[in-house]
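Handout, page 2. Input:
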Amino acid sequence: MSIDAAPRPDTVPLVPEAPSRRKPLGRAPARPTPVAAFHSISAATAVLLGLVAIGAMIHEPVLIPPLAASAALVHSAPALPLAQPRSVVIGHLIGAGVGYGVLAAAGSSPWAAAVAAGVTLALNMTARTPHSPACATAVVIVLQAPAPARFVPLLLGATVLLVITGYAGSRIRRTAVRYPAYWW
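Output:
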């Protein structure tokens, strides 16, 4: 039995397949240069330390875990919709509103916190403000029950500070991706 090098006529497709336009799956983005990585890490760390300093001066905790996640998005993935100012600021405010609403209606429990996170996600998607850390803001509010008169202004100020430092940080390094991709 011999192996033919040419395909048999009965197995040749009548129409050649179009070349695939899809990108290969499973490929991570290119590794950032050491300078770019250092810039992202130092800018995010600086803004988080700033939040801690503000909190120390006013004797209130300003740095909460969702804000650290927001800083990571703004400084390491500035082109993503999740990192845009509208999503960061409005997303956290929606999360706060939902958190306080669920806290008032259902009290403080892990079950209520889970509901608050889910409702926050749905409302953020509906409002075109996708920001996953905002779901964690709702959870923090339901589980910790901070006073709204103190917490909401601090949250608003912290999110605006994150956006401003993201903007400034992207202008300092000439080769950095410009932030934001859009304001509203």
